[in-house]
Amino acid sequence: MNPWRWLRKDRPVVHQVTDAQPSLRDDMRKREISYLVKMGIRLVCLILAVAVPAPWPVKGLFVAGAVLLPYLAVIGANQRGHEPPPPAGFTSPDQNEIPRHRREIGS
């Protein structure tokens, strides 16, 4: 074995495990937890807006949280994790592959 082989510039690219995307199950679980936390905060805002005797500006903040958080929760839950672009030359233009935006999960 050559002890100096690591100095060669033409060595093949070795992909690390950290290059892999998280599994679909892990990604969905993370999004579900995020959604439930945001909706829990919304519920607390709604209860505080009704139950706490506070001045109107404070109640207005609670109502705004109760109204805006569902929108943010749904947008966040539908957003898939960030996927980096594939390396150049990874796929050929004549390759028959389903485009990423058309992939569906079978039932």
Question: Could you please describe the fold and organization of this structure?
Answer:
With 107 residues, this protein is an all-alpha fold. The protein has helices spanning 24-51, 56-78. It is elongated and about 80 Å long. The mean pLDDT is 78.
Descriptive terms for the model:
elongated, mainly alpha, single chain, 48% helix, 107 residues
**Which structural class do you get from the secondary structure elements?**
mainly alpha
Radius of gyration, whole Å: 24 Å
Distance between the termini: 51 Å
Number of strands: 0
Share of residues in helices: 40-55%
Shape estimate: elongated
Write the layout of secondary structure elements.
Layout: H1 24-51, H2 56-78
Helix pairs in contact: 1-2
What's the short version?
The chain is built from 2 helices and no strands. With 107 residues, the chain is an all-alpha fold.
